[in-house]
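Lecture 7 notes: from sequence to structure.

We start with a single chain of 217 residues. Read the sequence below before looking at the structure.
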Amino acid sequence: MEKAAIMKEMVENGVIAVIRKVPEKDVEQVAEALINGGVNVLEVTLDAENANQMIQSLSEKFAGKAVIGAGTVLDAESARTAIEHGAEFIVSPLLEQEVIEATLALDKVSVPGIMTPTEAMKAVKLGADIVKVFPASAVGPSFIKNIKGPLPNITMIPTGGITTENAGDYIKAGAAAVGAGGNLVDNQAISQGKFSHIEQVAATYTEKVKQARDKIK
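Now the structure, written as tokens:
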């Protein structure tokens, strides 16, 4: 996919599902449930066993239906390897220059983690396309609103503690989209084979984001 199309999809969809430590045997069913629920931007974290293989299989199986990226990327080599396996975007929990540079060199979307206005500005100067506000639960929606005041052109996606109850608040505060992990990709539900539950929660997240956007139009 073209880089501009990847970014457009990430923002328009409004919800990025963080797939963390999901067993490889279940990951395709999880992805299918998320997509059926309206969430088609999927981030597979590299702290899972066989994460790159999962990125590759999801990229192949859901080509044209979903955008697959890598999360918890801590160094340049990990970024390059994930991209080789099909990752369209690279997300990090921290601001690491070598990760941003490696991602941009391969023309993929760079999403480093930030926690202060200074880090947000530094990330953009280094070429980051989007910044991940992490952990969002530590600062709340008001942080997004306050940063968007002096820095209106920074595209922010809060992640960490985003629930169906507060997702809309982050969107109304100025977030371009939200990242949802354990509250969406529920490992307990997965272990019990309750993929329909994940689909329902995905649909709820999608609806909450849509409602929030409708209110700020």
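Residues 29 and 45 are 17 Å apart (CA to CA). Keep this in mind for problem set 3.
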